[in-house]
Amino acid sequence: MVQIRPEQGRYRFDWLDPTIDALNKAGIKTVLCTPTCIPPQWVLTRYPNILQQDAAGHVRNAGSRCHCCKNASPYQILSETITRELARHYEKTEGVIGWQVDNEFGCHGTTRCYCEHCEKAFREWLQVKYKTTEALNEAWGTSFWGFDLRNWYEIPLPKKMPAGPNPGHWLDFVRFSSDTR
Asked: 99 near 132, Cβ under 8 Å?
């Protein structure tokens, strides 16, 4: 199959244009879906750190779909770029009636990612929510767990732990993960 973006900065719509035109002539309208769920292999070769990690720190390998971290800035930039290029190319195309950005966030157990991009984004999300580490400690009841936090950079992701994560920590991570989608 021909890729829409065979390499960075190069786009191919020549294989898709005739199909959309033929469908339109037959009275069938098109809803285009952005190819953000499955980046081309060259993206993963160039930006290997955009792959998700599970709670044990294992990289979720490519070869299927939904394997990229939504908080990785290269993934975000490339997703925005391909979406803009598709919109620019098809904005006045007769027969294109809608856009589907993605419909599979969180499927296949990919709702939560534990990579460095998510750890950074989680800390930023917590700063917006709590404003101070004192407020976060109070909300999470960290004194009970012996887990008082003084600096934002001390906050880890709730990865696999012997006794499980602090419930407040886990709940906020789940909420953050939902907001990421």
From this structure: no
The H-or-E segment that residue 84 falls in is helix 73-90
How many C-beta atoms surround the C-beta of residue 115 within 10 A? 21
Burial class from Cβ neighbours inside 10 Å (0-12, 13-18, 19+) for residue 11 reads middle
Q: Is the dihedral of CA 76, 67, 104, 160 positive or negative?
A: negative
Q: Cα–Cα distance between 21 and 10 in angstroms, integer?
A: 22
The b-or-e profile of 14-53 (16+ CB within 10 A means b, else e) is eebeeebeeebeeeeebebebbbbebbeebbeebeebbbb
pTM: 0.83
Domain ranges of the chain: 17-109, 116-180
Run means of pLDDT, 10 residues per run, the chain, 181 residues: 83 94 97 87 91 91 82 92 94 92 70 93 98 96 88 92 88 94 68
